[in-house]
Write a structure and sequence with these properties.
The structure holds two protein chains of two kinds. By secondary structure, chain A is α/β, with parallel strands linked by helices. Chain A has one domain. Helices cover about 15% and strands about 50% of the residues of chain A. Chain A is built from three helices and 13 strands. In chain A, α1 packs across α2 and α2 runs antiparallel to α3. The relative contact order of chain A is 0.13. By secondary structure, chain B is α/β, with parallel strands linked by helices. Chain B has a single domain, classed as Rossmann fold. Chain B has nine helices and twelve strands. In chain B, the strands form three sheets. Chain B has a six-stranded mixed beta sheet with strand order 6-9-10-3-11-12, with helices on both faces. In chain B, strands 2-1-4-5 form a four-stranded antiparallel beta sheet. In chain B, α5 packs parallel to α6. Classes of the chains: A alpha/beta, B alpha/beta. Chains A and B meet through α1 and α2 of A and α2, β7 and α3 of B. The structure holds adenosine-5'-triphosphate and magnesium ion. Magnesium ion binds next to α1 of chain B. The site of adenosine-5'-triphosphate has 13 residues of chain B, from β2 and α1.
């Protein structure tokens, strides 16, 4: 069960393929620590009853992209994608994710937590496609974005292509700066503005950290986020 | 002993005057109740004391032991000993309740002072027990998914650990079941000391079964119209506020002419500008 692969994205271009057998469970942690400007490409095919978790993590101020296509080819195939991305400087970070529901009773859950600082731009192309006949499939998409400076931008483009009636599909997006009300709440307990903002932003990353079992990796990722804030 | 003074306080929200000269004086060791019809400015008063960004103080003063509170930032007010239990507290994803409280306690330590982890955990456990809180609540994210009553209890938990000089409790009793009301009430009452006083905003007499209040103030149309003892609360509980409106010659529509004036004012300006263009 504990089948975890860590893909550290350090090369300029990197392409990976994954093929999940029936009932196989796998977790892939893709980590771009910002040491290079790079494009990461991933293709995955999921067989019956298999479960793939992909955690895409980036803390970068170099232009980069994530391009991933996941095909759910048989009943019960499930893919959970969690994007936790931070971009800074003048960089543009693009995430292009496509979830293909090619069979009935397939499930995808796609959550984005995006943070942009400085003058950076983040583009989230969140795509899911349910073909005709892929009935009783479930698609969930969520995008939460925090822009921490005036010049920072996050564009979330959710695209659901659905060619089948009998499915459940939903998406939610909220993007903006730190809520003034939340800030007031924390400050009213004595935290200064800087401390309060930091707590809120790190809280944004925490749901990801909660899912990483490897203590060393968790620490490394957490430190990368802290150093960029 | 400490003193909190509110002197001729005028407060506006988005250009509309809500508080029109509030005067109140609290000492530690005293519990003051503020009541009043919906929309008369009770939450406005509470939030203004804490420094909420939405409210503009147009004139008046707030003093804590003679120090000017209005020139302090929100966090400074907290560290000086003010606390606001909110009507609708925020949910903070990814930050556990216990981490949050620990950070807040750290923030008020003097330089060189430390808070040993074990001591913190013990006091947190003790406070949770006294409030009969569910055991998982300290380890969950701040207020996220908490029920209405659990959020209220969580505000009191923070108050107990942060030990303010003055706690302003904005409808801490709303949404509490009868047992929770008793527990929260007793916990607040037990805090009363020469180092702790409270301003308690409520609509119901029930809370005062457990909290021994000393003074009752009635806020209407942005001013304190009457102050007294518990007999005032009993009268309101039985008869509502109409007798007071009559006694004071207050009219529900006393904002009316003002609003009309504003509209006239805007039109007049626009007319003038239009003319100027041509
Ligand atoms: N952002 C705003 N814009 C305009 N008016 C506002 C705004 N916020 C508050 N008000 C108004 O200020 C007045 C006072 O509100 P406040 O919340 O202080 O009342 P309250 O006495 O606490 O009422 P309740 O008993 O219902 O809690 C209300 O008429 C309200 O509509
Ligand atoms: Mg109110």
């Amino acid at each position: 069960m504990a089948n975890v692969v860590v893909e550290k994205v350090t090369n300029v271009c990197c392409s990976k393929e994954y093929f999940l057998e029936e009932n196989e469970h796998k977790t892939i942690i893709v980590f771009n620590d910002g040491s290079n400007s790079c494009a990461f490409n991933l293709q995955a095919v999921l067989k019956k009853g298999s479960v793939l978790n992909i955690y895409n993590v980036a803390t970068t101020d170099k232009t980069a992209s994530l391009n991933e296509t996941i095909a759910l080819e048989a009943e019960g195939a499930t893919c959970n994608v969690l994007n936790v991305l931070l971009v800074g400087g003048n960089a543009k970070l693009e995430s292009n994710i496509m979830l293909l529901h090619n069979c009935k009773e397939t499930v995808s859950d796609f959550a984005n937590y995006a943070i942009a600082v400085d003058e950076a731009l983040m583009v989230l192309n969140n795509n899911a496609k349910i073909v005709k006949g892929a009935s009783k499939s479930i698609v969930r998409q969520k995008a939460k974005g925090l822009t921490l400076s005036k010049g920072a931008k996050i564009k979330a483009m959710p695209n659901l292509y659905i060619d089948e009636y009998d499915v459940i599909a939903n998406h939610a997006a909220s993007i903006g700066s730190i809520s003034k009300e939340d800030l007031f709440y924390l400050m009213s307990r004595g935290l200064d503005e800087k401390e309060a903002s930091k707590l809120i932003v790190l809280g944004f990353v925490q749901p990801l950290l909660d899912r990483i079992d490897d203590v060393e990796l968790r620490k490394e990722i957490s430190e990368h986020f802290v150093s960029k804030l | 002993m400490s003193k909190l003074q509110i002197i001729d306080l005028h407060v506006s929200v988005e250009g509309k005057e809500i508080l029109k000269g509030v005067n109140l004086e609290l000492n530690t060791g005293e519990f003051h109740v503020v009541m009043g019809p919906n929309g008369t400015g009770k939450s406005t008063l509470a939030a203004t004391i804490m420094g909420h960004y939405k409210y503009q103080v147009t004139s008046g003063q707030i003093l804590l032991d003679g120090e000017d509170v209005l020139s302090m930032s929100v966090d400074e007010r907290s560290r000086k000993g003010l606390f606001l239990a909110m009507q609708y507290p925020s949910e903070i994803t990814g930050v556990t309740n216990s981490d949050f409280i620990k950070t807040a306690m750290h923030a008020r330590l003097a330089e060189g002072e430390t808070l040993p982890l074990l001591k913190f955990i013990r006091s947190l456990d003790k406070a949770c027990e006294e409030l009969k809180m569910r055991e998982d609540l300290p380890h969950r994210y701040v207020n996220e998914g908490f029920s209405g009553g659990e959020k209220k209890r969580n505000e009191i938990l923070q108050m107990k650990l942060l030990k303010p000089k003055f706690a302003i409790l904005d409808e801490i009793d709303s949404g509490l079941d009868v047992d929770a009301l008793r527990i929260v009430g007793e916990n607040v009452n037990d805090m009363k000391s020469e180092n702790f006083g409270s301003l308690i905003i409520t609509h119901y007499e029930r809370l005062l079964d457990y909290i021994k209040a000393d003074y009752v103030h009635i806020l209407m149309n942005g001013v304190v119209v009457k102050s007294g003892g518990l007999e005032l609360m009993e009268k309101v509980d039985k008869e509502g506020y109409d007798w007071l409106k009559e006694e004071l010659g207050l009219d529900e529509l006393d904002d009316g002419p003002n609003i009309t004036n504003n509209i006239l004012g805007t039109c007049a300006v626009r007319n003038a500008m239009d003319k100027g263009d041509k």
